[in-house]
Design goal:
- Two copies of one chain form a homodimer.
- Chain A is α/β, with parallel strands linked by helices.
- Chain A folds into three domains: 81 residues, Winged helix-like DNA-binding domain superfamily/Winged helix DNA-binding domain (Arc Repressor Mutant, subunit A, Orthogonal Bundle); 96 residues, 3-Layer(aba) Sandwich (D-Maltodextrin-Binding Protein, domain 2); 101 residues, 3-Layer(aba) Sandwich (D-Maltodextrin-Binding Protein, domain 2), CATH 3.40.190.
- Chain A has ten helices and ten strands.
- In chain A, the strands form two sheets. Chain A has an eight-stranded mixed sheet with strand order 4-3-5-10-6-9-7-8, with helices on both faces. In chain A, strands 1-2 form a two-stranded antiparallel ribbon.
- In chain A, helix 1 packs across helix 2 and helix 1 crosses helix 3.
- The radius of gyration of chain A is 25 Å and the shape is globular.
- Chain A starts with 7 loop residues before the first helix and ends in a 9-residue tail after the last helix.
- The C terminus of chain A is likely disordered.
- At the A-B interface, helix 1, helix 4, helix 5, strand 4 and strand 8 of A face helix 1, helix 4, helix 5, strand 4 and strand 8 of B.
- The structure holds a DNA duplex (30 and 30 nucleotides).
DNA sequence: CAGGTTCTGTGAGTTAAACTCACACAATGA
DNA sequence: TCATTGTGTGAGTTTAACTCACAGAACCTG
C-alpha cells in the first residue's frame, strides 16, 4: 500500500484523547505529559488540514469530522492490536473455516452443507461470509470461495463452478409488466449490487440494447440482497445460474428471457499454500468439485 | 483502546517490505535507506518475539506467521489510509445509507422496501449489512439498525420492534424426528450463530432442561445463515418473531413448540446526532416505527 | 572458478520526532 | 474571588529514526 498515512504515532495520541475527550486523561493512559498529547494532536491537525477537536476553555470535544475519523482510526488500530495479540498467542483449533462470498454461501453451499456433514461427520465446518479480497479479511480462514480466476499470492486456487447470468424476477412482476424482449426491461426496475457494478450494462450491450434506460435502478450493498429483492418482487436481477436453479424449479423466480446468456467468471476455492498439507482441505475441495460437476457447468481443466 | 500496539512506524516499514519481499525496494518506496528498513524490521521482530521473515543469502521471504500478520496489518493500515483520504476529500451525496444487521435486512426490511419506495420515490435508499458495532464500521451510514438498547455515544437511538424467540425448523425435519416437548430436542441438531452465542442455553434453561445435550450443534458466522440452514432442514434454530412470521405463514418453517417464548432484545434505529437535523431521517424512522406497529410487538415508549 | 552484482545486517554517528518542564490562559465551581 | 482542572506552547532534553560505511552471503555471468 502506498497510500498516504498520517503520522502514525500521533494516531495513538489522537485515539486516546478522542475516546476520553481529554488530553490529560490520554496523557495518563499513555504515560506521557499532557503537553506531548497536545503537540501530537496539533501535529495531526496541521498535517490533515482540519481541526479534529473543538476547544472551549480548557476542554475539548470532537468535531463531527473528528468523530468520523475516530471510528475508522479505532477500527484500523483495533485490527492491528488484535493481529498483534493473535500473533503472540496462536489459537490452534481443529476445524475448517470457510469464508465464502455471501451469495454463494446462501444459494449454493448452505443447501448442500447437510450432505457434506452426513458424508463427513468428523469434519467441523464453520461458515463465514465476506465479499472482501482474501488479503483483507479480519479473521483467518482455511478455505475461501471467491469469483475468479484471480491473483491470490501465497495461495492455491482452482475454479470449480462456472456461471452464466440471465434476467430473473418474481412471477408476480410479469403479471403487471410482461417481458417478451430485452426492450421490455425499460418498464422495470433493474436490481444491481456493488459487487457486480457493470453486469446490467454488459448484458444490455450483448442483448443489442445498450442505450436502454430502465424505469429505475436499485442498488444494494450485496448481491444476495439484490436476489432477495427480486424474490420480493422489487425488480429484475441478473441471476446467476446454475446457482439459482433451485429457485427457478420452485417457481419463486422465473427467467422471462433465455438469450443472451452471459458466461461470466465462476467460482474458485482458494487455500493458503501451507494448508494444502492438510488432507481435510483435499476432502473438502474434492467434494466441492464433485458437487459442482453434478449440478452445473464444471469448468474445463484449468490450473490453479 | 488500551490494547498493546506495536511500534507503529515499524509497521509502515514492515508492510512495504513484506508486500515487496524486499528491504531495498521498501526503502526506495519509503525514501529511506535499506538500513533504516532493516533496523525497523528487527525492532518489530524483537518486540513481537517472533521472526516475520526467513532470511537466506541477502533475500527475505515472509514466514507463515509474517504472512498472516501482514494481511491484518494491511487491513488496519488501509482503513486508516482510507479514513484519512476521505477526511481530506469529503464526498457528500444525497442518499440515505442504512446499515442493518443482515438478518433484519433480509427477513424484515427488504420485504418492505418496495412499499417504502412507492411511498417515498424521492428518497434513495442504500442498504448495507453488518453485524459490527456501529463504532467499527468501514463505511459511514445515516441510519443503523441494531439490536438494543445499547450504548452508542454520539448517536440518537430508539427501540421500535421487540422480539421473541421460539424453536423453528423445516416441516420435513419433524417427519423424521417429531418434537412434542423440549426433551425431544436431544435428537436434533441445534443451529446457532456467533451473534447469539447463548440463545439456546438460555432457552433450554427456561424450558426446564438446562442439561439437555443435543445430537449436535452447528455454528454459523451469521444468524441469517443459521436461519437459511433451518429452512434447508439442517436442524432447529431459535427463530425470531415476528420477523419470521412470513416464513411460518408460508410453511417453510414451523414452530413445533409454543413455550417458552423468550422476549429478547429487539431492534433499534440509530442515527448520528448530527443527522437528526435532516428531515429525511425523521421520515425513515417514523416509517420504521409505523411498519413495526402494524406487524408486531412495538415497544412501550422508551427514550433513546 | 573467479569476479561482479544485488541484497541484507549492523556499528557509529547524525537528525528529527517525541517528550518533559515550566509557565500562561480560560472555564468552572465553591 | 480564589482554587481547581484542563489545554497551549516555548525552550530544552531524550530517544527513535535515520544515514553512512562496511561486511557477508547468494546468485549470475564470463
Amino acid at each position: 500500500m502506498t497510500a498516504t498515512l498520517p503520522p502514525l504515532n500521533a494516531l495513538r495520541a489522537f485515539e486516546a484523547a478522542a475516546r476520553l475527550e481529554s488530553f490529560s486523561a490520554a496523557a495518563g493512559e499513555l504515560f506521557v505529559t499532557h503537553g506531548a498529547v497536545s503537540k501530537q494532536i496539533k501535529q495531526l491537525e496541521d498535517w490533515l488540514g482540519v481541526p479534529l477537536f473543538e476547544r472551549s476553555g480548557g476542554r475539548v470535544k470532537l468535531t463531527e469530522v473528528g468523530w468520523r475519523y475516530l471510528v475508522q482510526v479505532q477500527d484500523g488500530l483495533d485490527i492491528i492490536a488484535n493481529a498483534t495479540a493473535q500473533l503472540k498467542q496462536p489459537d490452534r483449533q481443529r476445524r475448517i473455516v470457510i469464508n465464502s462470498i455471501p451469495t454463494f454461501a446462501m444459494f449454493w453451499l448452505l443447501p448442500r452443507l447437510g450432505a457434506f456433514q452426513r458424508e463427513h461427520p468428523d469434519i467441523e465446518l464453520r461458515l463465514m461470509t465476506s465479499d472482501r479480497d482474501i488479503s483483507r479479511l479480519d479473521a483467518p480462514f482455511d478455505l475461501a470461495i471467491r469469483r475468479g480466476p484471480g491473483d491470490w499470492p501465497g495461495h492455491v486456487s482452482k475454479p470449480f463452478l462456472e456461471e452464466r447470468e440471465l434476467p430473473l424476477c418474481a412471477p408476480s412482476l410479469l403479471e403487471r409488466l410482461p417481458i417478451h424482449s430485452p426492450q421490455d426491461l425499460a418498464q422495470h426496475t433493474l436490481l444491481q449490487a456493488d459487487t457486480r457494478p457493470t453486469a446490467w450494462q454488459r448484458w444490455l450491450t450483448l442483448a443489442g440494447v445498450p442505450e436502454l434506460k430502465p424505469a429505475a435502478t436499485q442498488q444494494f450493498g450485496h448481491f444476495y440482497l439484490a436476489l432477495r429483492a427480486a424474490m420480493n418482487g422489487l425488480g429484475v436481477v441478473l441471476g446467476p445460474l446454475p446457482m439459482m436453479q433451485a429457485e427457478l424449479d420452485a417457481g419463486t423466480l422465473v427467467a422471462p428471457l433465455q438469450e443472451p446468456s452471459v458466461v461470466v467468471r465462476g467460482y474458485c476455492w482458494i487455500a493458503p499454500r501451507a494448508a494444502m498439507n492438510d488432507p481435510t482441505i483435499h476432502v473438502l475441495t474434492r467434494w466441492l468439485e464433485q458437487q459442482a460437476a453434478s449440478t452445473g457447468i464444471a469448468p474445463q481443466s484449468q490450473p490453479g
